[in-house]
Structures are given as structure tokens and as C-alpha cells.
Amino acid sequence: MDSLRLSHIAGRFAAQRILVVGDLMLDEFLWGQVSRISPEAPVPVVDVVSETYYPGGAANVARNVREFSASTALMGLAGADSGGDRLLGLLAEGGIDTGAVQRDAARSTALKTRVIARHQQVVRVDRERKANIAPEQTELAIAYLKRCMPVLDGIVVADYGKGFLTQALADAICAIAGQHGKVLTVDPHPHTSLVWSGATAIKPNRAEAFLSAGMPPDGDVLEAGRRLLERWQTGSVLITLGDQGMVLFENGRAPYHTPTRAKDVFDVSGAGDTAIAVLTLALCAGATPAEAAEMANRASGIVVGKLGTATVTLAELLASLADQ
């Protein structure tokens, strides 16, 4: 892989105009120290010393895109609650366009709380109430897509199975993106079984790939990729394999495996968000699927070396691309 060409592609990220669509969450991190074991149960007692909040879910994908491009917009649903207020505030501070984020009084903003002690996650607590998007909310989302599509370069869909994405909205996204010839990438959720006809690339992780392919979790990755490429009728399928890197599948080409580039692994939170963000930016900037997969893999290798819901900077990505 030509590192100089990859660096030139990364240099074009700033010009890309990206819309991220999907389920919105708020990530809370409680940072502390463990001093003793609880007398009530064999669990550690964490003395919390600080707390931080970050955009989560599709909002974290947008945050990753925004590291490279100022033209980053987000579409989704947030609750009309304090969590939604905090989330939208964080997005505004980060320079992300939230004009397509709808507020819903009947919905609570999904909150994921991670307790971290001595650089290790002790426990994660999820507070959420799943609810499907209302028909009128879908109509508003589709109307926005029709208005903004001509000025976009690409769309990222991040499906966390929380109810924002339905087949009706998926069909509209695919149809409108196809009509305008835009890059469309999808980070799927296996339990929604949505069809993304004509997507440019779909990026499942190992577990999602086997489940979607109807195979056991210890099955053959190459067979899973072949099945998904045929089933999903997409341009390419990129299966992320954790510490084994990623494998790219394209019709008419041999599978391309890029091994992990991670040097240290502290926290895998949000690594998939980083991967789909960089994959999309690279495809929009003219990369081949293999080049885009290599860049996504490099970015993921950087972000897992950071604690918390982290992002990757252009300088970090360029340094990794130069390191052969």
C-alpha cells in the first residue's frame, strides 16, 4: 500500500461533506480509584474523583468525522430531557450541525455510564428506553435528506438498534443517495435485519457478520464475507476482527486482509465508530475500497490506545500512515 498516496487521500478529508444518520446516545465516564472490596458483596468500591461526558452512538461517529471535516451534520432523535440537552450542547461545542436532530418528549436519551478505575473499565450501566420512530418523524427525516443530499459527499448510517432506523427510512436513504450518486456506508445492527440495497460499503464486526450470515460464532470468516456480499448486494463488505485486523470483500476480487495496527489497547469503546468514519471519508476522498479499509484499520489502531470515547486526529492518522 502506497503510504504517500494514502496521506494525499487523508489530506482531502477536510473537503468532504458528511451526514451521519443513526441512533444517538450520551456516554458518561466516572473516573475513580479502587481502595477496597465492598463488605456487602465481592465487588470493588470505586471512589469517583471526576466525571466526563461525550456524544455516543451515531453522535460519536459524527464526532470522529468532525475531527477531519468541518462540514459534519447529524440526523437522529434525542429525548426532550436533560440528557438530550447535554448531548446537543456537546455537539454544538464540537461544531457539529444538529439541524436534523429531532427532540421527542416521549423518548429518553440513551445514557451509557462506564466506571473506570486504574485505567480499567469496572462496569457499564445502560439506561435507555427503546422506541420506534413515529411516521411523522420519518417523514421529516426524509424531507431533510431530499433537501441536503445535493450538497453532501457521503452518508454514514450507524444502526444501534434503538428504533430510529426503520426499513422505510433505510429505503429512502438508499434511494436518495443512489439518485445523487453519493457514497453510502452502513455500520449495521444484526437484530434489526434492515436491507441497505445499493450501499457503497457495509462494515459489520465479527459477531454481527456471523449472525447476519446465519453462521455459528466460530465459523469461517471468508465464508461469512462471501455470503454477506451476495446477500447484501453492496459494493464491499468490511468485517472488523478486533486484534486480528479487518478483512475486505469485493465482488471479483480476492479478500484483502489488513492486520491490526494497534500498539497498545486500553479501551475498545468507539473503535467501530472511528473505523466507519474514516472508511467513509476515505471513500468520499477517492480511495479504493482496499485503501479505505487500510486507513480505517490504522485509525482504529490509534483510538484503542486511548481511554474513553476517543477520536483520532489528522496528525495521528498521517503519522500512522507514514509508519510502515
What descriptive keywords fit this protein?
UDP-N-acetylmuramoyl-L-alanine:D-glutamate ligase; 9-stranded mixed beta sheet; 324 residues; alpha/beta
Please explain how this structure is put together.
Strands 5-4-1-8-9-10-11-12-13 form a 9-stranded mixed beta sheet, with helices on both faces. The chain has a 4-stranded mixed beta sheet with strand order 3-2-6-7. It is an alpha/beta fold and 324 residues long. The N and C termini lie close together (9 Å). It has a single domain (3-24, 57-108, 129-322), classed as Ribokinase (UDP-N-acetylmuramoyl-L-alanine:D-glutamate ligase, 3-Layer(aba) Sandwich), CATH 3.40.1190.20. The chain is built from 10 helices and 13 strands. The longest helix is centred in the C-terminal third of the chain and has 15 residues, at 289-303. The protein is globular. Helix 4 runs parallel beside helix 5, helix 6 (206-212) crosses helix 7 (221-232) and helix 9 (289-303) crosses helix 10 (314-322).
Topology:
Layout: H1 3-11, E1 18-22, E2 24-37, E3 44-57, H2 58-66, E4 72-79, H3 82-93, E5 97-104, E6 110-117, E7 120-127, H4 135-148, E8 154-158, H5 167-180, E9 183-187, E10 201-202, H6 206-212, H7 221-232, E11 236-240, E12 246-250, E13 256-258, H8 271-284, H9 289-303, H10 314-322
Parallel strand pairs: 1-4, 1-8, 2-6, 4-5, 8-9, 9-10, 10-11
Antiparallel strand pairs: 2-3, 6-7, 11-12, 12-13
Helix pairs in contact: 1-10, 2-8, 4-5, 6-7, 8-9, 9-10
